[in-house]
Queue: 3 jobs
Job 1
Amino acid sequence: MGLDSALHEIRHLDDLSSKDTPTHRLDARAKVLVTLFYLVSMLSLGRYEVSALLPFAAFPLLLAVQGEVPLALLLRRAALALPFVIFVGIFNPLIDRAVHFHVGPLAITGGMLSFASIVLRSLLAVTTGLALVAVTGFDQICRALGRLGMPTTLLVQLQFLYRYLFVLADEALRMLHARVQRCAKNNHPTLREYRTLLGSLLLRTLDRAGRVHQAMLCRGFDGQMPDLRPTTTFGPAEWRFCAIWGLFLIAVRILNIPQHLGNLPLYLGGKAGGLFP
Amino acid sequence: MSHHIVELKGLSFRYPDGTPALDSIDLTIHHGESVGLVGANGAGKSTLLQHLCGVHVPQAGRVRVGDVPVLPSTLGEVRRTVGLVFQDPDDQLFMPTVAEDVAFGPLNIGLPPEEAAQRVDEALAQVDALHLKHRPPHRLSGGEKRAVAIATVLACLPDIMVMDEPSANLDPHSRRLLINLLRSFHHTKILATHDLDMVLDLCERTVVMHKGRIMADGPTGELFSDIELLTACALEPPLRMQGCPLCGAGKEVVSELTVPSASG
Amino acid sequence: MSHHIVELKGLSFRYPDGTPALDSIDLTIHHGESVGLVGANGAGKSTLLQHLCGVHVPQAGRVRVGDVPVLPSTLGEVRRTVGLVFQDPDDQLFMPTVAEDVAFGPLNIGLPPEEAAQRVDEALAQVDALHLKHRPPHRLSGGEKRAVAIATVLACLPDIMVMDEPSANLDPHSRRLLINLLRSFHHTKILATHDLDMVLDLCERTVVMHKGRIMADGPTGELFSDIELLTACALEPPLRMQGCPLCGAGKEVVSELTVPSASG
Amino acid sequence: MHMADALLSPAVGGTMWAASAGLLAYSSSRLKTTLDDNRVPLMGVLAAFVFAAQMINFSIPGTGSSGHLGGGLILAVLLGPHAAFLSIASVLAVQALFFADGGLLALGCNIFNLGFFPCFLCYPFIFKPLAGEAPSRGRLMTASVIAAVVGLQMGAFGVVLETVASGISELPFNSFVLLMQPIHLAIGLVEGVVTAALLVFLHKARPELFGAAQQNAKTRSLRPVIVGLALAAMVVGGGLSWFAAGDPDGLEWSMAKVSGKEELEAPEHGIHSTLGSLQKSFAFLPDYNFKEPEATATDSGKPEAQQTESWPNVSAGTSISGLLGGFMTLCLAGLVALLLRRRAPSKA
Ligand SMILES: Nc1ncnc2c1ncn2[C@@H]1O[C@H](COP(=O)(O)OP(=O)(O)OP(=O)(O)O)[C@@H](O)[C@H]1O
Ligand SMILES: Nc1ncnc2c1ncn2[C@@H]1O[C@H](COP(=O)(O)OP(=O)(O)OP(=O)(O)O)[C@@H](O)[C@H]1O
Ligand SMILES: [Mg+2]
Ligand SMILES: [Mg+2]
């Protein structure tokens, strides 16, 4: 991803996270915990599970809809994450050729199932992660992690990173533009140019770090970041959110709902075959 | 020369994150003109300048430089015509020494090394920075960096010189040098700046921007006397027009502003 | 109050790479004074200011702030007395939201959260930026960032306010707001800047630096009329004193400079 | 290359999370005691630098492709292992959150693969001995290239182990290794060359800065690194081999698949499969593996092989061999480091 578009993507998510919906207002810890529980329960499904994965789409979907996150954005990003997953998963259909069932003339092999499952997992995991960021915001997620026990040093780290990312990326972009302006073609820099571009950026980064530190000292910094006051509490809304989604996730994890739906005629009609003979 | 007309027609631009920056801009600048572009922080000045050398490609409307419309396919040609000096010289200087930095453009357009070296000397001499030739750019003072950044653009022999806040952070002497340098440069010049006194010195024509639109476009002296317009655009008359403490003149012009008297 | 005297005696400083920056500086600033620090790029202004709040510790000579000598052991106390506003607000704003950033200082000196919150509100109100309270600093415009950076220092209630080029990159309107804000602030102020017109507005006393030394120290109006001194130090009279184009006054004062007439 | 959520089983993801979290806690506690506090902003701002630098590409001469900085090694050189590890972790966290690079569950794996190896192995044991006290240009180049290549090889191997251990992908261990390692050889070379180029640039522009970094490095004790290394090797060896050593060959594994039957294929045992998946669904945490296998078999009434099929086999035997292997690896690494340290002065 180019710096330009990367920065834009971050700004976009950042924009979305500054909206004010009930979902945004929930304590970030609730959203982070439910997301982790979601990932674990979803990814723990067997590798041939395809239909059982489908109900899991409800969580990112609802999060996005309630948080006014454009679905197109989530899907586009999810598609971007696919290549590596496909690269690794594409071998499944080639290796695992055991036929599991037939759909008409088409023989469905285990490899096909597990490949489909991998793609689906990837889509679900990515959309959920992004939806979480879009309805919570980076800063709130960091704080939630901090309140859940992440070391303070790391928390401060993440906040610094996020803050200076914008400053440095803007600087880097302007340097790249200045370079392109004096080039006949819009190509990548050569290694030599790259070295000096990044080197200059690094020098300025180091200088900036020194100045930031001085600014901190001037305001009484003594090696310890002041305690960041919690801004939200884990109230009834949070408990409700956790309980509802927790129950839902346990339910869809245990019961393969689509399969049960598919098997409905079977339950009703006794042992008379099934959808997939 | 008709081919150095700069023409913007119905130009609009939004940053990818949705921030509107330019809103149907119409502007024509003729060869040899010297135009000041002024306006509040965030008015869209930098964004407009960046359209002239293809950093941004128009989203609506069109930009022509001479006979060439600015399109992805013509960027090479446009960039040879237009030289943009960035607001922060640090952004512009990235090679290990000043000489290499100034030679970067000429070498890239395919000049043989000897010819490029000659251009380097000429350009550095023009900004009175020949003595810095072998220094690394990151060890120069702010004003020296600015001079070298201008030289890097001069060395490309642009027909149109575009500068973004060239006088910021310069001490008064360096600022004066810059003004004199620009006055001696007879091609088309477009300067975006908050330094209205510099505009008064250099530009016969001024364009006032506000919130992505052009609010006024006319002779510099006329616009700068229109206090209402200036106030509406978060501007003030140039300092030299604000009650000179020696003669007390001009006070009445700017009486709406809280112009203080010198206490010394 | 004797304890707010700032006193530099024989102060010299070299950067670790050997660059000399200050050369036996002697300077005393009294409580409530407002002092402009001017000089060429690289004259040593920023280095001097950084000695006042212990960013650098004197290598030769000594620095006293009130009754406290600036030593590694007293830095905590000194930094509570002196508030430094950096040239680039991006260096100063590092917390995730404006409110937290402004609260950083008060919390660090051990104020309870409620009191700190109150200080935040007061400081933000002083710079007219209360509406930015919950915004992340990276989404502010340049002028807004500057205002918040000043608030972060105000919230520490410094007795001495030290600012490095506060008006750079601001549009004229924001610059005027800043000047008015500073004028309403009655503690000791020390401003390093190239904006001599701002010095003329705000400071009754000016210190001229050149190559690490103090070249002149006196009433602002007097120094700014001494063309010879100014020229020697790469300075110029403030723009408002340079031939006002309306009345033509002052032209003779600055006739040594190539002061141009407005062409508009 | 980032490990991805979709290829990961929660057991492996959880193990790696635990390993990374342990290292993070250790690193930050180390920093708290030794930190001269100017490192706090330096770490964050450098992490932002690496983040931005990773998105700037340069063209690799003669290939038509492009490369960029990875950043792990240069952070280790500039900050020292502990601070660098935290910085890399934060870069990866931002990438996981905003670009879904990897994902949240895979973050533990990625921090381990891309942070632990360069910071705690390659920097102290390869880069430092090779570069020496007062590095010349040539030595910086050699040290960076070798350290970067080794680091990325280890990282890539980590991805392979984690993927195979998770058992979501069918890609056989052998072929996956053959795919990943050469790709990462190339990436490692690029990373090494870029890191070296940057270090040389920095060395020329700011020699004083370099001297200080070297001094810091000199006073740093190696013992904690070795302890961390041993811990990590045990986690990797012991934890991963439960999953990996159980099915050393993916081909065999998939053969087993062919003979084994899957629930989907046998919809007739409705209630049993429900019970079975109930059992499974409460077993998605690593501690599943400590449960009695008999219990699973009896509860579901299905042969054990079927129930645990997509789950790694746990046996004391493989765990012990894994620990042993980890220990041997550690010895080998120590030996190599010793050799390198001996040879380094003679090279100058
Ligand atoms: N990369 C960017 N992404 C999103 N919005 C941007 C970007 N750059 C500028 N903007 C926004 O576009 C608008 C115009 O910005 P521009 O930089 O053109 O202003 P300007 O007139 O040059 O201001 P200044 O005097 O402060 O330099 C502003 O609202 C600004 O916030
Ligand atoms: N970190 C540094 N390392 C080495 N030399 C430095 C450093 N910072 C400043 N200098 C040098 O010290 C001298 C004084 O610099 P200083 O920043 O104090 O100047 P200044 O008066 O603030 O200039 P300006 O108006 O450009 O801000 C200059 O020669 C400068 O090159
Ligand atoms: Mg601008
Ligand atoms: Mg300065």
Job 2
Amino acid sequence: MINKQVASLAAALNGIKDGSTVLCGGFGAVGTPDELMDALLEQGAKDLVIVSNNAGVGAKGLAGLIGAGRVRKIICSYPRSDDPRAFDTAYKTGKIELELVPQGTISERMRCAAAGLGGFYSRVSAGTKLAAGKEVRDIDGVPHVLERPLKGDVALIRAHRADRWGNLTYRKSARNFNPVMAMAADLSIVQVAEMVELGEIDPEAVHTPGIFVDRIIVI
Amino acid sequence: MINKQVASLAAALNGIKDGSTVLCGGFGAVGTPDELMDALLEQGAKDLVIVSNNAGVGAKGLAGLIGAGRVRKIICSYPRSDDPRAFDTAYKTGKIELELVPQGTISERMRCAAAGLGGFYSRVSAGTKLAAGKEVRDIDGVPHVLERPLKGDVALIRAHRADRWGNLTYRKSARNFNPVMAMAADLSIVQVAEMVELGEIDPEAVHTPGIFVDRIIVI
Amino acid sequence: MKPLSRRQIAWRAAQDITDGAYVNLGIGLPTLVADFIPRDREIVFHSENGILGLGPAPGPNELDPDLINAGKAPVTLLPGGSFFHHNDAFLMIRGGHLDIALLGAFEVSEDGDIANWTTEDPDFPPGVGGAMDLAVGAKEIRVLVEHTTRDGKPRIRKQCGYPLTATRCVKRIYTNLAVIDVTPNGMVARELVEGLTFEELQNVTEAKLTLADDWQPLKAA
Amino acid sequence: MKPLSRRQIAWRAAQDITDGAYVNLGIGLPTLVADFIPRDREIVFHSENGILGLGPAPGPNELDPDLINAGKAPVTLLPGGSFFHHNDAFLMIRGGHLDIALLGAFEVSEDGDIANWTTEDPDFPPGVGGAMDLAVGAKEIRVLVEHTTRDGKPRIRKQCGYPLTATRCVKRIYTNLAVIDVTPNGMVARELVEGLTFEELQNVTEAKLTLADDWQPLKAA
């Protein structure tokens, strides 16, 4: 029988290794897997590479991980936020590496990994500083940048509802990066508000099919 | 006010030109825009390039267009069917060109066009006859074929419900190629069983957002 | 001569958005445009974080913490709106499915290059967000910008001094002084605020301008 | 010596599918496998046309014309199943999200190459469907095949004679005579039908086989 629900945050995060690439869902403070990120601090993995649209707010969640020196590198589109003190401090003291990637390109690079493709050509960032060091190719007379897949060892996801097969639904704009990240990691760990019976989620309205989900914890 | 519903099949297909690339939804006989394809026969456009997973069944729909000599070329993964007489006849007499593409690659090439990308690298077909003439590149030691975007001038789509903004839902496996084709053409024309009021389709369960839809006809 | 206020710039840009358009409003000044759409037009606003059909700001009882726009402000959803994931949101942007993106900018060049993501201020880490995707992807890019910096330096330049967001993409610029089109033959001033001469406009513009034969006074409600 | 029937080959392959696996069944012989999954295992079957959680064939009152599998036969959906579009269906395939794909084949080579899409019969136009995507994408490829052609020619060969579907992807082969693994050290016979000697098996197999030390009789219910 398939049952992806686990009993504790510790069980949810079990086995995450030092040096892992961790995809963290959310946009701003919406749809972020806060409890999973706090639990990752507890869990102890270090030298992490974090992929996240933003770089943490205040002192909890991702900011907590950065503040504790556990993040070697962050790949994001917009490290600023209302209260970016943890990232700012780490950045100014050279304790964190920043790879700045356009928002759509981060998302597409993760989908590229999820889809088993080797790379794609995009006009985005061609002719700008963010294309520095990247291969550029003219396609139909227009310069395109070669972008490579971005795969996670782990994804930390926040959804609204789940069933035991791992089917997920999200609420409104809390969906954001969560579905693409759930697809793009070897191990996808999801925090949800609610478990429902198998079959209760309309099969026409599953946002993330269970095939992309490994562990679920109810918060 | 936005109202994408049109009054007649003739209005739905108005302006489709000779030589157009037409994406036709459906898989086998499920989710195929039969009435739109029959109306395209009436409409008269010729020298068409058709993109469709299959190559028509019997004598109606796509098979009718092929039988009438209106299709110059078909891009598909599986031209056989239970009753492939129209395609078989045209193929054996050299009256239609066949570009055979793996099913996932057709779909991904259309998405590539929809997403405004210049191409992608895929392992699929590397080392096979279907990669003949295509650029191959080793990525991380694995040969990948460069695939180019596949864009439609027109897409003919079959959905279940629509609202006046063009939001669509499909039924079960009739969804298949329809969503990706709706995204990948300059002009997306949709036949639906039913129009519903704006707001009746759950915003969490829209299968094709209206931004991808131009004209809707109720059949 | 009275320059337009920020709300007046937004009003002017709003008048050019045609009925039925799919539009993304950049953070800051462009966001104000939503308040000035003529009532007889139905516009579908898009947000990078997976929304089509953004409605006005929520009343106190409508606030939903899971419903924000790309600027992270609370919003509402209109009937006919939809939610989707980030990847589809950027497919829409990059794939040319948006009719118009209205963007803020630090600078715009004569060729329509735009710089709007970093001033390379060493006190702040750089952030790009969706700026490059929007500038490359939308069918038409229009910029809303103060004509000059606080120090009076021109923002409409021969070449951008700040790092580029994208090249040759801007089609129209709305400023507090003028409406300017970027054309294959260079920049053309279409509207000037009343009391401003073309010469005065050129003096605060580094890029070379020509005055449209059918230029109009720039009016704002 | 009694070769397995097609249903027995399917039964044998079914025994190796572990609880909770995500599996795609190719058209033809592999489709039969669904009938023989041990009852205590919950398997999620995937279909290229956008389905996870395929159930058994529908009863006469359950038939829904909009619900077919990749072989275009009517099916049902289990609770927990979901529908999605073709692009996501092939993202699952190509991206390595399926644990197992069970495929039919014309030929398999010593290196694990598979030929299963065309015999280049001039009487038929070629069709590839999802064969190449599946062979490249699933985590593990297992083939179900009659050991020889109707004319007695081996289907397990040093090199495939028919056009390749994909290279070096097959891990295990179930035939009416044996279960054979493709390993870095060549093909290893793990199970032989009772009464068949290894020498007899090698005689109908073009590829070089070795016999596993712990080989077993090939049993089928």
Job 3
Amino acid sequence: MMFEDLRDLYQEVILDRGRHPRNGSRLAAFDVRAKGDNPMCGDRVEVFVAWDDAGKVAKVGFEARGCAISVASADLMADSVAGLSAAEVRDLAGYFATLARKGSADDIPARFAAAIEGLRALAGVHEYPSRVKCATLPWHALVAALDGAGEASSERD
Amino acid sequence: MMFEDLRDLYQEVILDRGRHPRNGSRLAAFDVRAKGDNPMCGDRVEVFVAWDDAGKVAKVGFEARGCAISVASADLMADSVAGLSAAEVRDLAGYFATLARKGSADDIPARFAAAIEGLRALAGVHEYPSRVKCATLPWHALVAALDGAGEASSERD
Amino acid sequence: MNSITRPDSLDVAGIRSAFPILAQSVRGKPLVFLDSAASAQKPRVVIDALCRAMETQYANVHRGLHWMSERTTEAYEETRDAVAGLLNAADRHEIIFTRNSTEAINLVAHSYGRGLLKAGDAVVISEMEHHSNIVPWQMLRDDHGVELRVIPVSDVGELDLDAFDACLADGRVRLVAVTHMSNVLGTYTPAGEIVTRAHAAGALVLLDGSQAIVHRRVDVQTIGCDFYVFTGHKLYGPTGIGVLWGRRGLLERMPPFLGGGDMISSVTMERSTWAEVPHKFEAGTPAILEAIGLKAAIGFVEDVGYEAIGRHEQALTQHALARLDEIEGLHIIGAAPDRGGVISFVMDGAHAHDVATLLDRQGIAVRAGHHCAEPLMQRFGIDSTARASFGVYTSLEEVDVLADTLARVREFFK
Amino acid sequence: MNSITRPDSLDVAGIRSAFPILAQSVRGKPLVFLDSAASAQKPRVVIDALCRAMETQYANVHRGLHWMSERTTEAYEETRDAVAGLLNAADRHEIIFTRNSTEAINLVAHSYGRGLLKAGDAVVISEMEHHSNIVPWQMLRDDHGVELRVIPVSDVGELDLDAFDACLADGRVRLVAVTHMSNVLGTYTPAGEIVTRAHAAGALVLLDGSQAIVHRRVDVQTIGCDFYVFTGHKLYGPTGIGVLWGRRGLLERMPPFLGGGDMISSVTMERSTWAEVPHKFEAGTPAILEAIGLKAAIGFVEDVGYEAIGRHEQALTQHALARLDEIEGLHIIGAAPDRGGVISFVMDGAHAHDVATLLDRQGIAVRAGHHCAEPLMQRFGIDSTARASFGVYTSLEEVDVLADTLARVREFFK
Ligand SMILES: Cc1ncc(COP(=O)(O)O)c(C=O)c1O
Ligand SMILES: Cc1ncc(COP(=O)(O)O)c(C=O)c1O
């Protein structure tokens, strides 16, 4: 098969989530939100976060225009952060960035084990430097939303 | 002798005129004048022209800051144009420019024979492209004076 | 599958052998470089010209009285002659070297725009411009009170000339700055017609020739425009050098843009005076080596010949349009009759980036994104396209590889 | 005659063999290139880096999703890291690539000057500046109503720091833009002291490092300045590339200078937004190949080592000063204790151009003229000097050839 060696990058779950994201819509009620864009390629995402009463993430929704990788990443992200505190989301974002850049991430605390498992499908991007930003863009937007920044940009370097 | 091959450029008359120009001063009374400068190297010259009653050049004087070539050229120029009409000075300037650039100039009308003879000492500059402008700068200024332009610049190319 | 559909007048194999990089493989596959509109590869003569200069004949220009400087100045200034010849400029003093097209346009926006335009004057651009021919005019608008008007683009991807007339109608337009060939749609714009209408309305015309000059002979006197810009790296030359051509009288009236060495006539602390054009616009040590490389690139293009280049481009483009059109779910953006070797497309179910990544895995380099033309993307209601673009070295076989692979990409994402 | 007066810590012969051009002869004589302050020659590693990129790994940067573009982007961005390392910048985002020092200074004059200064603010320069650090500020003065003040130069060729204090006294100075090393006198300026005084008066400091960085390690954090500029071609790199370093917070507050591709975040016809630094200041296709060459040049300099470079420069300079001083009728301009390998002189009875032509005939390349520093010429009451300047490849023997030949030149014109 011609693209066999791309199956690492485009795993079934990515293709599926890219096409049919579960969380790909604006939340009817949300507490914070932020946009992210990658000026070089035109990917755009807006992330919406609703808190629960304990100050943890109740739900994340997003609206995205972008490639399969960025949409799938946003969708898996939304799943992975449910129930986490803002501080935990930031930590997880860091582990995810390492995973995307390096293909693996060490010393991930046990409390993130489940979350990171769901994200591993994206580890394949590390071989495609210009696609790493597609995967990390929704996370930048999410962190910007938590920071109250409103906007995030995926840097070129 | 180390600089033997430069004797073509620095003939005795050039060294002499460069050091002790005969016409190297502002005229007490003049009709037109113009400045010339070579922005690349900083050569500056100001040329003063007095007409006689017949509308020919009575006298040319100049003030110069520049190299031996430019000062000698201004001085020899002043000698060579005495008695010429403005139109003749323009023609002679053209022949001189050719002489300086090419080392010789053909088809010079007989009436310029004497004038050009006095200028031939400068023909050696043609081997030194960046020095050609030193030799032609006073002529640019002289023509600018005749044109009433007031300023001339020796172009770099 | 495929088939070579047209006779090809160019010795493509011979030309390819002049480009060392084309022998490279990428990810284990032979490189199929279809991103020439972003930047072209460099022929051996350009590489050699740069190396030879650094190895045997180099010094700073214009200011030296020594042999190396005199020779290097000559070489630098010969490029000005070569560019004047390439554009059929009336006068070598009309050729100004810049870093790229972008700087050339900014130079005009600063020097002509801020220097000679007044608040209330208008500048016209079009919806199919590269950001480099949009943003400088927006900055002029915002800093200087000049109005910015935009020629819309039709569904087939041409300038709407009726709307252009409407832009010109009130006589306030002083400059029309439009592309000579779209870097997204491949459309050539009707330069002569634009000039006629603009001049009739009292406006000057700047043409962005970044793409056009790669494929067609440009004669600025026949076109009748007032400024023309292009960029060396797309014309098989080095990076770091671009060209602004402008009418001499116009350039002489314009104030300088950057200040510094080489652009002055005299400097005192109180007041400085400017050198003559083109030097007035070339502050500081210029891109000397790059000019030397650009001259070699122009020589290369002239040796191949614009006639042959144009025929080859048309053959490639027609073949590519036909082959891509066969692919179910693939949509080509723009369908202007007068178009060249730049083809943008989108694919159902697959984002342009994903398409590009799959192609890359097969050694095929295409561009994906907004191509620095966001307003044009908005016009077509899309956020990005994949774009294949051809150079003099592109072969029909490479077009077939692209088409065959795209058909598989479509399968992959279906 | 002569004598090698000092031990030389550098393997000059080895270094010379890395510069192919030094094997050339000029007018039948071995080239003695003493015009490095105008532009330095290029080592093999720089030539090779450029050629290799064009032969094996080239595409436009930042916008490609394909292998060639990704690799080329990496190479381009690695140069940013290399420059950040060279200058000990706190942050790689503080490194902006320009065409040369001149453009870097103009960028600051436009973006910081027109963007953040107000009429009535003052800028301080000095009497020993290169035109590139004079004219942009004059243009700012004339366009924008900013006052321009000038630090005078003492008879030995140093900045008059008392006069500098006087310039700063009224608290209106917002920026001090001075050279880090004079390209005429060879004087190093007391950068740290200038920064201390300027900052105390609430002014920022831009240092023009075009000459200094060739000879001395520059640590912008230790110096404490706010902007630093240099130009690639004097640092053994290609033409067409220069560097502006600025503090990140400052760069972030500054509006963009040139508009176009690569410097935007988003573009609509109504409004564009800017990319983050450094990209905000790098409009259009950058000097990609030149950046790759600059990285090789920095590698070359770091391999030789600033320690060794500095010792060699001091040995050459002291030797040259001693030898030239022996020549009757030759006068060296400037006598600052802290000075480097740039020596200007005049000769009784011989204009600098004539001196240069005679030297050239012997294969010796020196510069003659005002060196783009007319105000400094006026300060010393001269209209031009001859200037010998040294590079890492200059040998003590070459200095002796210069001195011996100058003695004969003096004879010729006596
Ligand atoms: C001190 C100084 N500043 C600025 C410049 C300008 O450099 P560039 O011409 O590369 O812009 C030079 C060299 O020409 C210089 O010596
Ligand atoms: C139509 C058009 N204009 C302008 C540019 C800008 O060229 P550069 O980036 O070399 O300045 C490009 C290419 O990027 C282009 O295609």
